[in-house]
Every structure is written in C-alpha cells, then in structure tokens.
Specification:
Layout: H1 16-19, H2 27-35, E1 38-39, H3 42-45, H4 50-58, H5 64-82, E2 87-88, H6 103-111, H7 119-124, H8 127-137, H9 145-152
Antiparallel strand pairs: 1-2
Helix pairs in contact: 6-8, 8-9
Length: 159
C-alpha cells in the first residue's frame, strides 16, 4: 500500500480571484487529480455545483484507497454531467518531488525575470507549493500567476 504525504487543503492567495466561486480548478484539486491520474477539463469542472467542487478540494487523497475513491468520485461527477468518462493521464511526471529545481520552473522564472530558485529554496517549499510552480510553468496554464506564486512563497519580492 502506498501512502502519500498528507496535503493540507488550502488555497493560495494567487488563486483569490476565483477561489470564492471555484470557477477555476484550484491547485489543491489539480494535485489530487494528478495523484489519481484523472484529466479533468475546465468545461467538465464548470458543470459541477459549488458543493461538489468544495468536496473535491476537501476530500482526502493520500492512501491507495483514498486515491481510488477520489478518482471514482470524479468519474461519477463527470458521467453525471456529461455522460462521458474523463480522460486519464498517460504518465505522471511528478517533477515537484525531485530535489532539484525542474528545468521548466527555471525557464519560467527566467522568462518572468524572477530570481533563480536554489535547490535549498526548492526543498524548503512544501509539496503543494512545488506542485503549483511546476503547473504554472507548463504551457496551457495562466502564466501571470507564476510571479504571484513566487512572491507568495517568499522566493521573489516582485517579478
């Protein structure tokens, strides 16, 4: 049995423009979706009611059983609203667990003229903070939140 580190349910300040309504998928839910390898589209998320979205943020997703239950619940919700089965991630590259700063994070920091993140700073972040920086570094994610996250995590004053 695999048990992942328990991740406290929390929302970041850089998510404050949507967290009250949960119109976008917050990092805590993205982390849990990646954990159970479910690819949830924003259009699917938008169909869920607020209580379902809030439950996905709060629902535990640490032990093998919890991960399975989380994935099953997401599948049920997507089916309920779309009559489709959500896609699964082919592979999971958890760059946020590495002890070195992923290249994509370094590149995004350089792009935004943010300070270089040292390995010790990287390891000083918690898993959800590292996850957020990796996700914000990847294409398809709202890049303007990267410098906001860097500042929130104490890695930059302003980029």
């Amino acid at each position: 049995m695999t048990t992942l580190s328990a991740i406290e349910t929390r929302f970041f300040a850089f998510e404050s423009d949507f967290v009250d309504s949960l119109r976008c998928i917050p990092m805590i839910v993205r982390y849990k979706l990646d954990t159970c390898r479910v690819k949830l589209q924003l259009s699917e998320w938008a169909k869920f009611n607020f209580d379902e979205k809030d439950f996905l943020a709060e629902m535990p997703c640490h032990t093998d059983r919890e991960v399975e239950m989380y994935g099953d619940y997401v599948h049920e919700l997507v089916w309920k609203y779309t009559s489709k089965v959500p896609s699964l991630l082919k592979t999971l590259d958890p760059a946020w667990v590495h002890t070195h700063v992923p290249a994509e994070v370094c590149e995004k920091a350089q792009e935004w003229k943010c300070p270089v993140i040292s390995a010790s700073q990287w390891m000083g972040l918690d898993v959800l903070e590292r996850f957020a920086l990796v996700k914000l570094s990847r294409s398809g994610h709202e890049g303007r939140n990267f410098p906001r996250a860097m500042a929130e995590f104490g890695l930059a004053v302003a980029c």
